[in-house]
Write a structure and sequence with these properties.
The chain has five helices and five strands. The chain is an alpha/beta fold. It has one domain: Response regulator (Rossmann fold). Strands 2-1-3-4-5 form a five-stranded parallel β-sheet, with helices on both faces. β4, α4 and β5 form a beta-alpha-beta unit. The radius of gyration is 13 Å and the shape is globular. The two termini are about 15 Å apart.
Amino acid sequence: MLSALIIDDDADLLEMVGTILTNHGIKATCVGHADEITEILKKKKPDIILMDIYLGNADGREVCRTLKSSKRFHSIPIILYSAGQITSASVNDSKADDFISKPFNIRELMRKIGSLIKAKPSAN
């Protein structure tokens, strides 16, 4: 079963995205704070990470850049999302694999997830 780590400080959105992924056959681990990510990733690497840019206590672009700079986690595809006005340059600088604006279309989100998981190297 595919697995996803979802990071968002909005509990309602976190639950909604988790439910959507679960309904599409993806095991979802939901986290409300960026400082929990490292502990979760030490236990199990997900197939994909979905992360809000504005996390309250952190900037998802910085978290993404840190993960992508790590030998251990760089191969995990990351989709950033936000309702704010985000420049493509800031997303590119974060080294995210993709970006989707909130509110997002479920089909578009699932298409992006499917595309990134298929493109993911088989050796981690």
